[in-house]
Predict the structure.
Amino acid sequence: MNVIEKTRELGKAIQEDERYKKYMQACTDNDTDTEIQNAIGKFNQLRSALSIEMQKPDKDADKMTSLDTEIKELYDEIMAMPKMVAFNEAKAEMDALLGSVNYIISMSANGEDPETCPAEAPHSCGGNCGSCGGCH
């Protein structure tokens, strides 16, 4: 079996993972939620209006400030919606999974043992090499 075939197997395994399923469900939930979609539409309209105002030679500072405030408030509202919170949590889990997969593949391509290399990159160097996966 070649590398591409193994990669396709990995792709199938990812799609069977609960984190992938949770993420895909959260995507569907957001895509079909009228309240979220309407809020995102309004958000995009406000951003467009701000962009247009910023390009005018005679910018209205008060209008730009008002639009900016409204954009930030609407963004906070969208991000606080329960389905959006669930989506962001699922996305973070999926991103972490893919980060681990990519890190193991990269480490393996650099000669590390795929069975023993860590599932994620060391986050920072504390100066004590005893707990480190190694500097390269």
